[in-house]
Amino acid sequence: MSPDLLLDPQLKYWVLLPISFVMVLVGILRANVTQLMMPTPKLTPFKVLREKSFLRRAQAFRANNNVLNKEEFEGRQNYLIATLNSDHFYSEPVLDDDKPANPFSDPSTNDALMNMMKGNLMNYIPQTVIMGWINYFFAGFVIMKLPFPVTDSFKQMLQTGVATPDLNARYVSSISWYFVNLLGLRPIYTILLQDSSAVDQLMSQQQQQQQMPAIGGPGAPKVDKIYKSEADNLQLLTHESIFDGIVDRVLTLN
């Protein structure tokens, strides 16, 4: 049997609660500072919006053309193919030079890199300071015992900084309590901040952006290639309407 420890009740007042309070306080301050450091959104030019909107229109037709009759399908298909093969909706003239553009020549790229650096600093500096504070004042502390049993596989996660292989896995060290708070304070932030977007940003949730291809950015395919690729896809479409034979299907059901 693993030996039991007699923990001083004052540990929760002088170690456990201060660590939790400091982490919540720093998290709220970091969320507010991050909001203040966010750049002012820039207005997207109308021609850029029109360029992307027309591409989405062509993609929507390719995905939902089965509600059109044959005449409507052919009319829209011919119009979209002809327009995609022209430069009518280009936001700016496309150069024939195939030389890849320097990504750092675009101001938006530099702004994105600067915002990413600010976000990394806002995450790295507070966490480094708090961990250094805990390591300096509370290194090697066993501060609590979990009220429920856990297997020995949790020892490495719950007893970081405590080199006692025979200790019961239910005991939690000060450093481990820091990591538990780091990953589990989302409900507290949600209650205090009352803003789900700020909570998502604070918890550094990875954002998945799997939408339409980028147009015009450095390293992205040029708009003429994207448009022509979509025109080729529309050229291969065949008309299949959900209303074909609908009368026979209804009479069969009756």
UniProtKB/TrEMBL annotation:
The chain crosses the membrane at residues 13-33, 124-144. The EMC seems to be required for efficient folding of proteins in the endoplasmic reticulum (ER). It comes from [Candida] anglica. Belongs to the EMC3 family. The gene is EMC3. This is ER membrane protein complex subunit 3. Keywords: Membrane, Transmembrane, Transmembrane helix. It is a multi-pass membrane protein. It is found in: Membrane. Its main location: membrane.
